[in-house]
Amino acid sequence: MRRQLASRDLLRWWLPQALFALAVAVVGAITMFVAAQNLSVRGIVLDFDFLSSTARFPLSESVLAYSPSSTFARALVAGLGNTVLLALVVSVFSTLLGIPLALARRSSHPLAIGTAGTFIDAVRNTPLVVQLLFWYGVLTVTLPPPGNALQPIPGIFLNDRGLYITSFGITGTALPLFLVAMGGLLVVAVLAWRGRLHQASVVTLAGVIAASVLWLSLGLGIAPDVPHLDRYNFVGGVSLTPEFAAVALGSILYASGFAAEIIRAGIAAVPAGQWDACRAMGLSERQCLRLVIVPQALRVMVPPMTNQFAAILKNSTLALVVGYPDLNSIANTTMNHTGHALECVALVALIYFTLAAMISLGMALLERRSGRWAL
User: In degrees, to the nearest 5, what angle opens at C-alpha 190 toward C-alphas 188 and 173?
Assistant: First the structure.
């Protein structure tokens, strides 16, 4: 009798699921059939052979190697690299900026509360496109030309072409061996920090001494690459273009307002009794936040932060308004050169969907771990 009831319950649960999946499959098949018929009538053939053709257009900047002689596929990969870099920078720094803003909103100081609240309301209630154009205008109009570049500190130059910073490189023929040794030292330090090695301070100190001895014995050195003016612009060092700076700065400030409210709400969701218990144990405010409040608040903050990071990824498509060559911008250029609009749109949609799914998966794993951290 119990088996019959269990089988009925199982059938009652699976049957609607199967019917829904079948309905979705039928609708999808009909949509694809109708689309194929319409494309055939218009003489449009879907193919991705154009990806192997030469792009023949330059990119103003790319974190990956690219030249006009590269293929369209390589151009899209370069755009993907720019998009991922921008999304990572904005996600990290907007969260870091949102933490002090959230703490300021929760403080008892009227000036801190008013300043943080005004900033958050201003950036959240202003369109992101307007903020990007504002910062791009500030960086390109108000800054001097390269010949009169600003130098706030030695080794850093700022002008309307971008920000140029001195970079440092390791010189020496035994550089690979030193990198392997430093990698081993990093593993030891991580294990010591996680408590898997006893006497962490002794192990870390011994590793630093060993690395120093190895550095001197291999004859390695540090060579600075200082930016310098070469006719019309600076060369050398690490450069940050006005386009990337404008879209990164505007997006960071915009996203930090939302991150601050998410963090503030997460901390406020922890019962007040947890604070009282911490103080009764003699913990400081910082220790209460780090050891008790934040681990519990993470369970509340992770779901909205998942949406926040996905929104940052999708908002990166607005970078084209200031000329930053992200994936969306390069896809539009590819469409104009090849005429394969449907293929480009499908590729871009698939890439953004995959990136958003990876964000959701990573945040789901973090949410699962946050449940273990909470008291």
Answer: 55
Domain match, 185 and 77 both = no
Range of the domain at 174: 168-225
The amino acid that residue 157 corresponds to is: F
Task: Kindly report, residue by residue over 293-341, the tens digit of the pLDDT.
Answer: 888 888 888 889 999 999 999 999 999 999 999 999 999 999 999 888 8
- Residues with Cβ within 8 Å of 120's Cβ and at least 6 positions away in sequence, in order, are 101, 105, 257, 260, 261
**CB 68 within 8 Å of CB 53:** no
Are 341 and 205 part of one and the same domain? no
Tell me the C-alpha distance between 144 and 245, whole Å.
16
Q: Same structural domain for residues 354 and 304?
A: yes
> Is the Cβ–Cβ distance between 176 and 182 less than 8 Å?
no
Other C-beta atoms closer than 10 Å to the C-beta of 149 total 21
For residue 82 the two structure tokens come to 């720019």
Which residues are CB-neighbours of 242 under 8 A, at least 6 positions away?
136, 139, 140, 160, 161, 162, 322
Higher pLDDT among residues 34 and 238, named by residue: 34
3-state secondary structure of 169: strand
Whole-prediction pTM? 0.78
Instruction: Say if CB 63 and CB 82 are below 8 A apart.
Output: yes
Structural domains in the chain (count): 2
Local confidence band at 375 (pLDDT 50, 70, 90 cut-offs): very low
> Rounded CA gap, 298 and 263, in Å?
9
CA distance 326 to 87: 10
Q: Which two tokens stand for residue 321?
A: 């308004």
SS3 state at 297: helix
Tell me the C-alpha to C-alpha distance, in Å, between residue 51 and each of 42, 258, 347, 348, 350. 22, 38, 11, 13, 16
Range in 30-34, 128-132, 250-254 the model is least confident about: 30-34
Contacts of residue 262, defined as CB under 8 A and 6 or more positions apart, other chains included, come to: 98, 301, 304, 305, 308
Q: Are both 207 and 282 inside the same structural domain?
A: no
The owner of tokens 């973090």 is 366
Q: Which two tokens stand for residue 94?
A: 């907007």
In this structure, is residue 66 part of a structural domain? no
d(CA 74, CA 68): 10
The β-bridge relationship of strands 238-240 and 162-165 is antiparallel
